Amino acid sequence: MSAPVYERVALIGLGLIASSMFWAIKRGGLAGEVTGYARSEATRDTARRIGLCDRVCDSAAEAAEGADLVVLCVPVGAMGSVAEEIAPVLKPGATVSDVGSVKRSVINAVAPHLPDTVHFVPAHPLAGTEHSGPESGFAELYDNRWCILVPADETTDPEAVARLRALWEGMGANVDEMDADHHDLVLAVTSHAPHLIAYTMVGVADHLRRVTESEVIKYSAAGFRDFTRIAASDPTMWRDVFLNNKEATLDILGRFTEELFVLQRAIRMGDGDHLHEYFSRTRAIRRGIIEAGQDTEAPDFGRAAKKP
Amino acid sequence: MSAPVYERVALIGLGLIASSMFWAIKRGGLAGEVTGYARSEATRDTARRIGLCDRVCDSAAEAAEGADLVVLCVPVGAMGSVAEEIAPVLKPGATVSDVGSVKRSVINAVAPHLPDTVHFVPAHPLAGTEHSGPESGFAELYDNRWCILVPADETTDPEAVARLRALWEGMGANVDEMDADHHDLVLAVTSHAPHLIAYTMVGVADHLRRVTESEVIKYSAAGFRDFTRIAASDPTMWRDVFLNNKEATLDILGRFTEELFVLQRAIRMGDGDHLHEYFSRTRAIRRGIIEAGQDTEAPDFGRAAKKP
User: Fold this and answer.
1) Can you tell me the distance from the alpha carbon of B14 to that of B97, in angstroms, rounded to the nearest whole number?
2) Which of A25, A131, B26, B143 has its CA 20 to 30 A from that of B35?
3) CA of A52: how far to CAs of A55, A138, B161, B176, in Å?
4) B53 within 8 A of B91, measured Cβ to Cβ
5) Cβ separation of A205 and B285 shorter than 8 Å?
6) What mean pLDDT is reported for chain B?
């Protein structure tokens, strides 16, 4: 265990991401004190009960005051108003960061509120589960996951970026840097479009009249189940993601629809060679993900299941 | 351990499904002898080396001869020719079954070849992993998974159906019965359409020029990873599924596209309420799947990962 990276860290918003940060910070001894704030009184009560944060505050400003690092862990659509609320109390020289899944719109919403005396280093940890809330966090969430730092502009202090990098590495993550627009495109491909597609497929199953909901649920192990896991993610967070990464998501969805139509046509025309060649290519991408350490080879469809 | 359900079982085709059946049959003491055949000599050699099947034969007819149950475990497109090949040697009173993911076209392809002296009871175990081949099987694959029996017509001997049900229950599965057309529609929703969609999304990521393949792979944990697992399934098996369940799959994909367009429009128009409501509904379906015992609540996106 090394010296703390920051003397005081404030977490604004206490859901899955913030609570996992807290436990990872404690595991690594990365901060002297961690304060926390959540808008909902019930969440603050839960946090106090389970020992989430060294000190749970009753306002965002109280939590942020005097902190060396303030991390905004609220839905993307709420970032701007939280930044406005804490701006007056920010300590000169402090760093403000966030964990939003979209970066350009967060920068646009937050930067105008911040005083020149603080550093703004947006970030996005690529980790999560389908659960949400203060009790869903765990210290290992970021181990060997990527965290992308997106410095707001070229004037960002390199020292502030390096310190935030050290915090994320201390929490177990691998850190990359990227500009905001490229981040938003990469995430549209690897996360935002897949989520919308999963939500859609689960919605289709729900609407069908000739297949009952209990049949869909009983027989989900055949592939559908993995879609439902993705489609169980936090609705508020995802609404804000789509509204704030509109162009890149619609671009990828447009390409997806084109591609789907080509495969549908191959099915309709009975073009087996086209299908086989396509499916063989996608299998190779899976191999790359296992080799990159972002998944294990352990078979998943056959996972141990509870007795009903 | 009870008395064997069948004296002799023959498995034609030795991939993931057949090899898991063998280990599950052995675990349960469900058959006196299990013979096996695979078209590829390399697969037969592997089977002999790892002890898969009590006796590995060099032709489908040799494996099927004298068996009380013959299970066709080959891709859907190969079922007809295998049935033709084994028909002359089938023992009177024997049962022929299969494990294909599509049922109407398998019945159409297989039934005409079978003599009146045998019972035909098609089946479909809803279990699998993204791996394939004789070494991918394991005894627990069917534990608490569903197996759907689809008696070819109303004249099927109830005694033959009951015996096949006992075998699948002995291998750990829950058994349902359904007619072929309903089966094909249910599976189009829960399995075939989700697979095609996952294949498509993985293909889109592969084609993008502005996002490199290594970025897609590195950042896959954000949602895309679960699609690649589905899209890594056996290409030959899936080509045959789509070509043989054409109408139901295209029907579901048409509904999917409509629904996707409505959500795309909500994103474009900034209709956050519509998105939030939709995403909240899909979350409830996930809850139903966990309650039905077809998945665990353990968070999956944050699963333990190997160091790269």
Assistant:
1) 15
2) B143
3) 8, 11, 57, 47
4) no
5) yes
6) 90
Question: Which sign, positive or negative, has the C-alpha torsion A215, A217, A220, A224?
Answer: positive
Q: Do A238 and B185 touch (CB under 8 A)?
A: no
Q: Are B137 and B52 in contact (CB under 8 A)?
A: yes
Nearest CA in chain B to A213: B285
**Domains located in chain A, CATH noted:** 6-178 (3.40.50.720), 182-291 (1.10.3660.10)
Provide the percentage of residues in chain B whose pLDDT is more than 90.
74
- For residue range B105-128, list pLDDT tens digits in order: 999 999 999 999 999 999 999 988
Q: Please identify which residue in the block is written with the tokens 């998501």.
A: A249
Whether residue B302 has pLDDT greater than 70: no
Q: How far is CA B127 from the centre of its chain?
A: 6
* Stated pTM of the model: 0.84
ipTM above 0.90, yes or no: no
**Mutant choice from B20, B199, B265 vs A, greatest count of A C-beta within 10 A:** B199
Q: Do A278 and B194 make contact, defined as CB atoms within 8 angstroms?
A: no
CB contact under 8 A, A190 and B222: yes
Q: Do B131 and A229 touch (CB under 8 A)?
A: no
Q: Which of B197, B234, B271 to mutate to test the interface with A (most CBs of A within 10 A)?
A: B197
